[in-house]
Write a structure and sequence with these properties.
The protein has 419 residues and is of the alpha/beta class. It folds into two domains: 164 residues, 3-Layer(bba) Sandwich (FAD/NAD(P)-binding domain), CATH 3.50.50.60; 198 residues, 2-Layer Sandwich (D-Amino Acid Oxidase, Chain A, domain 2), CATH 3.30.9. The chain has ten helices and 20 strands. Strands 4, 5, 6, 7, 14, 15, 16, 17 and 18 form a nine-stranded mixed beta sheet that branches. Strands 9-2-1-13-20-19 form a six-stranded mixed beta sheet. The structure holds flavin-adenine dinucleotide. Flavin-adenine dinucleotide binds next to helix 1, strand 14, strand 18 and helix 10.
Length: 419
Amino acid sequence: MKVLILGSGVVGVTSAYYLARQGHEVTVVDRQPSPALETSYGNAGQVSFGFSSPWAAPGIPQKAVKWMFQEHAPLKIQPKMDPTMARFMMQMLGNCNPERYAVNKERMVRVAEHSRACINALREETGIRYEDRQRGLLQLFRSEAQVEAVGKDMKVLEQCGVRHRLLGGDELAAVEPALARVPGKFVGGLHLPDDQTGDCYLFANRLADHCRERLGVEFRFNVEIQRLKRSAGRIESVVTNVGELTADAYVVCLGSYSPFLVKDMDIRLPIYPVKGYSLTVPVTDDGGAPQSTVMDESFKVAISRFDDRIRVGGTAELASYNLDLLERRRATISMVVSDIFPEGGDVAKAEFWTGLRPMTPDSTPIIGATRVDNLWLNTGHGTLGWTMSCGSGQLLADLMSGRGPAIDPSGLDVSRYAA
Ligand SMILES: Cc1cc2nc3c(=O)[nH]c(=O)nc-3n(C[C@H](O)[C@H](O)[C@H](O)COP(=O)(O)OP(=O)(O)OC[C@H]3O[C@@H](n4cnc5c(N)ncnc54)[C@H](O)[C@@H]3O)c2cc1C
């Protein structure tokens, strides 16, 4: 089957890899000059299967009100609200109860745990490296209240069979030695030893090279996708600035821009662009830098180690598709990394970046068929798209090939929003 993948972020590239491996003739198109130049470029680098949790959770609405008055808050909402943002916030609120949280969490963990198996096999098969490390994630707590609150997350981790260990403040440096230089800052931490770290941009580019060289995937860049053309209930072609492109099947992997393309097909995707920021800091002292990923629970900032760089990512800002680099957001993530790893890197020389998380109100990606025969979706990966990309791509390939899927796909396709 000839498959056209729309979008070459990490989700488009992993989809191409798994579809090509199953024998399909795959082409990927993107408006950028190379893969992963939008949201997949500068994310926080955590490949955190065990950390997959919906943002919409019980207690979040109350916390959100408090965050509105904090300088370094994890959530920022622009004062001018548009109808799409208002609808998204209402849908998020509808998911902030224990029942929805449990359903959404199970779906996320299902995809994330499959991703763990898939990315490990992918590394083995392709031999690609992306400044990756397999040394776990450490969630850091600044207060006893945070330690108490993690109890319910640990119950879910137990149910899902995810290895984890609650550490006291004096045990943290055994996992991240640089924390010995800031004694007393944290009262404890949750260690997830099987999580991973890596540069998503490098991963997507090296996997794209592998797809091109070994699997015959064609990549077409600098192509602006404009609209879909439908005839007799099927997609006939994709209209672009370089003409119409045709295939037997089409996969939408356009991240935050996916809703625009499919709305003419009467498919409403509740994906909202949740803006985040990152800093990429050159390492100046290996002993003062993190060795893997740490997550500061107070500020919801993740800090990951690449070879000679530290990636710091965080902040959820609701500001539509605006990509301005705001200095006050830089101040927050810069403050957090300097507070935890004061001697690790040179924040003055950091690269500042922003990207739009393609967020669904239930935090779960949208993977599967649509009511249009040959139109498929693999999008809406929100906060953990790098983590979930391999599992999503593999599942999509199974579904498109008509194979028995490797994991249960129920509740993952777009029809869940119709219910
Ligand atoms: C600050 C921040 C930190 C994050 N940290 C993590 C993390 O630590 N771990 C993790 O797992 N996830 C993280 N994420 C989330 C993760 O980065 C995303 O979920 C993921 O990159 C989404 O990938 P994607 O391929 O769906 O979207 P994208 O990477 O945005 O790809 C979409 C592609 O579609 C193309 N496109 C869009 N419209 C058109 C058009 N009209 N014509 C042609 N091409 C088009 C774009 O050029 C782009 O290449 C983070 C995100 C942010 C913003």
